[in-house]
Write a structure and sequence with these properties.
Layout (H helix, E strand, L loop, with lengths): L2 H10 L9 H9 L9 E6 L5 H9 L2 E7 L2 H13 L6 E5 L12 E6 L8 H8 L3 E14 L6 H10 L4 E2 H10 L2 E8 L2 H22 L4 H20 L3 E10 L1
Parallel strand pairs: 1-2, 1-4, 2-3, 4-5, 5-6
Antiparallel strand pairs: 5-8, 7-8
Helix pairs in contact: 2-3, 8-9
Bound molecules: S-adenosyl-L-homocysteine.
C-alpha cells in the first residue's frame, strides 16, 4: 500500500474528513440569497465522503456535483446518496480541483469544506471564479488565525503545515481582491472539531492499527493526527476553521 492509500483507508471510516457539521453547512446556505431558486447547480469540491454534499442536496432544488481526487470517497458519496433516495440530485466526478473540466458559468454555487487548502485559498478562489455565474456564490471553509497574536509553538506548526494560514481580515481581503464580494463569515464552533472530527477519529485509531498490523505507515498517520489533536486542545482558541461566503461579481 502507498502512503496515500493508507490515508484514504483511514479517512474512509469517518463520516467527515475535516471539521464541520450539518448545522454549520445549513447556516452557510442561509446567507445565500439565491438558495430558493429552482434547479440550482452546485459543485462540492473536495467532497470526501460527502457529508456536506448530502446536506446541500437535501436543502436545495437542483443538483450537487461532488468532486474529489479519490474515487474511493466518491463511491461512499454514491452509496450514501442512494440510501437516502438522493441519487437523482447527487452526481460525482473524479477530478483534481486545480484541473476542473467545467465550462464558464456552469454553477450557481461552488462549495468546499476543509479542502481548498490543497491548492491554496487564493489559487482556488481565482481558478474557480469563471465556473460560477455572475451573482452566484462561493462558500468555503479555511483554517484561519483567530487572533493576530499567538504562541510560537502553534504559529510554527501551522505556518509549516499550511503557509497560507492567515487572519480573517487578510482572508477577507483575498476574497475582495479576486472578484468576489464578501457576504458573511463565521467560525466553526469547537464541536465541529471535537465531536464531529477528532473524537470519532480517535475511536478508529486502534482498529486501524490492528488492521494494518501496526505498520510503520499506519503508525505515522496516527502519530500525525495525535499531534494535531493535542495542539488543537491546547491552542484551539488561536485558530479555527472559518466559513467564508462570498458573491461572485
Ligand atoms: N469536504 C469533506 C472532505 C474534506 S478533506 C469534509 O468536509 O468532510 C479534503 C478532501 O479533498 C479529501 O476528500 C481529499 O481526497 C480531497 N482532495 C485532496 N486534494 C484534492 C485535489 N487536488 N482535487 C480534488 N480533491 C482533492
Amino acid at each position: 500500500m502507498t502512503d496515500i492509500e493508507y490515508i484514504i483507508d483511514f479517512h474512509l471510516g469517518g463520516k467527515r474528513q475535516g471539521p464541520g457539521s450539518d448545522k454549520e453547512t445549513l447556516k452557510a446556505l442561509s446567507f445565500i440569497d439565491i438558495i430558493n431558486n429552482k434547479d440550482l447547480r452546485v459543485a462540492d469540491i473536495g467532497s470526501g465522503t460527502g457529508a456536506q454534499t448530502i446536506s446541500i442536496a437535501n436543502n436545495i432544488d437542483g443538483k450537487v456535483l461532488a468532486v474529489d481526487l479519490f474515487p474511493q470517497f466518491l463511491d461512499k458519496v454514491n452509496e450514501n446518496a442512494n440510501k437516502l433516495g438522493l441519487q437523482d440530485k447527487v452526481l460525482t466526478m473524479e477530478a483534481s480541483m486545480d484541473k476542473l473540466p467545467f465550462i464558464t458559468n456552469e454553477f450557481d454555487i461552488i462549495w468546499s469544506e476543509g479542502a481548498i487548502y490543497n491548492i491554496g485559498f487564493e489559487n482556488g478562489l481565482r481558478q474557480w471564479k469563471p465556473f460560477i455565474k455572475e451573482g452566484g456564490y462561493v462558500a468555503v471553509t479555511e483554517i484561519s488565525w483567530l487572533s493576530n497574536n499567538r504562541p510560537s509553538e502553534v504559529h510554527e506548526f501551522w505556518t509549516n503545515a499550511y503557509p497560507e494560514i492567515d487572519t480573517i481580515s487578510n482572508k477577507t481581503k483575498v476574497i475582495e481582491e479576486n472578484g468576489y464580494s464578501p457576504v458573511a463569515h463565521f467560525i466553526l464552533p469547537n464541536n465541529c472539531w471535537l465531536d464531529n472530527y477528532y473524537n470519532p477519529m480517535e475511536e478508529r485509531f486502534s482498529s486501524f492499527l490492528k488492521k494494518h498490523a501496526n505498520s510503520k505507515a499506519a503508525k505515522a498517520i496516527i502519530d500525525g493526527e495525535q499531534k494535531e489533536i493535542e495542539l488543537y486542545k491546547k491552542y484551539g482558541t488561536y485558530y479555527g476553521y472559518v466559513f467564508y461566503i462570498a458573491k461572485r461579481i
